[in-house]
Amino acid sequence: MSSLLSRYADCIFWLARFVERAENLARILDVNETFSRDARGSQNWLSIVQLNADEKRFFEKHPIATADAVIRFYVTDIENPTSIISAIRAARENARTLRPLISTEMWVHLNVFYNRLKQIDKAELAPGAMTRLLTWIKEACQTHTGITEGTFFRDQGWYFYQLGRYIERADQTTRLLDIKYHLLLPKSADVGSPVDASQWSALLRSAAGYHAFRRLHSNGITPSRVAGFLLLNHRFPRSVYLCLREVDQNLNELRSRHSLRGGSDACNAVDELHAILSTKTIDEILDAGLHEFIDLIQCQLADITNRLAVAFFGAMPTMPDAEAAPAPQ
Amino acid sequence: MTNERGDSVLSGYDPHEFYCEMLRGEANQPIRDRLANLTIEALQRRSADAEAELYNLGITFTVYSAKDAIDRILPFDVIPRVLSPKEWDHIERGVIQRVSAINLLLDDIYHDQKILKDGIVPAELILGNANYRPIMQGVDLPYKSYVNICGTDIVRGADGQFLVLEDNARTPSGVSYVIENRHMMARAFPDLMNGIGIRPVDNYGLMLQQAMQEIAPKGIIEPQVALLSPGTYNSAYFEHVFLAREMGVPLVEGRDLVIENDKVYMRTTGGLAQVHVIYRRLNDDFLDPEAFLPESMLGVPGLMRAYRAGNVSLANAVGTGVADDKAVYAYMPRIIKYYLGEEAILPNVETHICREPDALKYTLDNMENLVVKPVGEAGGYGITIGPKATKEELAEAREKLIEDPANYISQPVISLSVSPTLVEGGVEGRHVDLRPFAITGEKTWVLPGGLTRVALRRGSLVVNSSQGGGSKDTWVLE
């Protein structure tokens, strides 16, 4: 059995995450641009900044969250580490390190993708052209996924890739739900109104889940149904439940087929989260607070990532209360 | 000769007084005929396509500025340089001979030092050399193979004779371009290559892997090979990736390796896994902070202990730099004679060793016609090119030479051969050299062809990639 360098495992995990992240960011921007106008036809671009917890960094560069500023900040601003171009650059840098492991096709595509992103000009970011650009970015990310699926050798590296991809996807789906939460929050009077329904449908579209949702619930969009679909559905490829199931399976595959001894910690954390998603109903979740539930999932996903890093990537364990602990002398 | 489609590739080409690789070779006729059927416009179009592809493939070397990484491709000229079977046979035999002599020299230097005792090479030249590694004294290597990968720089003078300019016995680079250039040509010019009969180059990785298996410590059934790179910031990183892929071995950095009980392990997802052979693309100085530069972060503390204990093999061996030194180069014909009892098949460029009184006098008398080179580590610095130097520069060089003659050699200016090359506005002759690559495990094998570097600036003799040089595909005919 061939062994995988810890550093490679780390890089392939993050390569997958960065591409998944870029795709989701493109989805969020596209939906905001296309569908999520309120009754007066205006859009709340600030919510995207809030969603990514980027207020500080954003307002250092831009006085107000105009469409133009937010889009540039998230598509082409290489100085913004949470932009699409930064994510793809990071993915490409990981790919560069991983070139002995990944297929040539995977590398060439990311290389070309990044070089093309560097050339985006102002005209492509203009309101009328935005959707075309974002569609291309989404497709480029999906092309990456397809190339990987079709060319990446199925040894350990593949499983670490899948772990990264699904952890990031679960995280991003919770963020999508959260953006809706942010949009909704100031205007609770609108709940259940036609505008609200159209915004929830926009949310489904941004997760590529509109038609799947329709097949399940042909008789109407309600917030609880949409949230339940995105969090708990067993068949929808971007639901948190399904992502977690994939994480669980891939981790087990590594531990059984590839006899990796480490990772029992991470397994336990995955099981825990999986159990929560399997037993709770969407009504229970909404009653207790959607935002709080999303927070919990995001913290758990970060915890799982840390445990994987310690078990497989050669990271040092972090102290539970590292920030509160006194500095070592 | 202009046809209705435009100028053909070689129609306006004039190599002037230089030896031309394309026009003088008798084996080149079919290729010349095919080039005559191609227009310059078509060549330019295909060349642009090829360069775009190299860029997309990321076959680049990386220049790091303060803010960002800039990837540049090594400029690739699409007109091949062609060698006949006879020419290649000569080069191949010459390279194998040189590698044998270098390995015998290194084994001798690090054991009995007979060649020094017999006064063939001055002892202080070796023992006082910055690349001599006393830590290697008495270490026995499998097959006495020190230089497992050797790149010999060869030029061709006005009379067409091949001459060795330099032996690269440490970590010679460039072989990835040889193979990628060939792939590129096969895609861009199938019509030019079809039916010509060109010796393949893409088994290099297999041959290298095989040699690495051969030099593994005794008794290891399935040796784990790894390629050690300084990392993604190194300008030759693409080549490290390429070689690791071609060999199918992990590309590791120092931080991936750890020494326990004088054995080398790499950190994997399943724990520590032993490594038996390391093709290192890291200079001696950086290999092991315990043994060499203590501040080096790139190497592996304790690696030399494992090496000396015979638990890991390194390619190339430590301390090979003493053999590719400019001063030692001057003695190569005598070294070949001493160990092999043969004349050098590939002669050196005529070299005057200024530490010897006759040579010093000759050099001083003919300064304006000679290239005077310091033999130290300066790598290109401190060279005086007689015909191009001013009176003041010559006087200054003369002073330095008299002060420390042992630090200098001198050579005549070589009128390097040219090869037709696509440049802005057409096809012109540009100076070329050749670096064949030899792999040595139990025996020596030479990759047919090698890296032809081409000076892209008119009249320039500098073929170095960092100085705006490019490369060409090199065809050895069947």
TrEMBL record, chain A:
This is DUF403 domain-containing protein. It comes from Aliidongia dinghuensis. Transmembrane segments: none annotated. InterPro entries: ATP-dep_Glu-Cys_Ligase-2, DUF403. It comes from the Bacteria. PANTHER family: BLR5612 PROTEIN, SLL1039 PROTEIN. Residues 4-313 form the DUF403 domain.
From TrEMBL, chain B:
This is Circularly permuted ATP-grasp type 2 domain-containing protein. Pfam families: CP_ATPgrasp_2 (PF14403). PANTHER family: BLR5612 PROTEIN, SLL1039 PROTEIN. Signal peptide: none annotated. Residues 80-455 form the Circularly permuted ATP-grasp type domain. It comes from the Bacteria.
